[in-house]
Each structure stands twice: as C-alpha cells, then as structure tokens.
Predict the structure.
Amino acid sequence: MSAGEEGAARLAEHALRLVQDGQVLGLGTGRAATAFVRALAARVEGGLRVVGVPTSEATARLARQLGIPLATLADHPTLDLAIDGADEVDPRDDLIKGYGGALLREKVVATAARRFVVLVGREKVVPALGSRGRLPVEVVPFALPLCRDRLARLGLRPEVRMQGGAPETTDNGNWICDCGLEPIADPPGLDRAIRAIPGVVGTGLFLGMAPTVLVEAEGKVEQR
C-alpha cells in the first residue's frame, strides 16, 4: 500500500466515527471517497445499517459490488452526512473539487446533506484557492465554443478534458473545461461570473458550505 493509500485509509477510518446507525450518506468520488466506501462496506458487513446516495456511476458500481444499499435523492432529498474528498482547501475551508469529473453531482449531494465531511491530505491544503492552477468547469457540449470564449475573457485558460482522443463525458452527458488560473483574489466573484455564462452547468468552486475538514499528515488526522 502506497503512502497516499495509507493516508486515505486513515481518513476513512476517522470519518467512520462520524457515521451513526440508520443514517443516509452521500458517497463521494475519488481516491479518498473510494477508501471511505471500502471501509464503510466492512462496517455494513458487520451489521451497520446505512443507505448511500452516490455522486457518480463509478461510486455506485463500487458500492453495489461491496454490498452497500443505495438510494437516490428522490428517495431521500435530505441526507444526514456527505463524505467526499477535495482538490484544494483554503484557510476558510472553501474548496476546489472536480479533478475526478463528478463536480456537479458532488455539489448537489453535499448541498443536500446536513453535514458535509471532506477528506484530504496535507498537500491539498492551500493558502488560496487556485494555488494548484486548475479549476474544473462543467459545460453543455453545444455551448462549448461560447463557454470557452467567455472563460478566456475572464482571464482563464480553458482546455477541454480529453479521454481516448475525445472529450471526456461526465455522468450528466456534459464536458469539462479545465481552466488554468492563478490564485483567486475573489472566489465568490469568479464563481458568479462563470455561472452567468450560458451553457455552464457547474464550477468546481465549493464556497460557503462550512464543511468538517479532516486533514491527514504524517500518520495523524486533524479535524478542523
């Protein structure tokens, strides 16, 4: 097991302490979320009763394979807890997410939850959002030329995320523009400006959501 996998496993075990019997859980996407789903499945096998609402088809497949009961937001419009990773966390606990391609569903599920728990390694903690130089934006394919032009006018450097020589398609049937950028001076302002572009369906900026952030570093987990 790599150091990254060990850190993700420690975060998952810590997050499991926040789970109570009978809860409905939002299940995130990505390495940290996958580690949590695997750890949760072991508890379910041991008798823990929970229901999961997955943020991606990949997470849904894994959860089904591991025996975690699943539902949808139509069944449970309000969730007890959502557990997910993040690609950046700033000092205000605002986030950038979406490197894994599930940003829109992740934001919907996190918003539906009474408590949002974020699992990250120390390398994801940044002084300002945008420090890692990338902001995912999900767009409707028809609107790509307009979106790319308007994103560039905002000073961003949009590139369509590719997979196998074609644009990578999200579970919603959309495409992702990975926008190059510098640290963001005004995240709320940038988020509003991007979302005002017709054809944009979501950004990777998760602002003002007041998550519980679990940070793993040097074999320990800090809750903040």
Remarks:
- The chain has a mean pLDDT of 97.
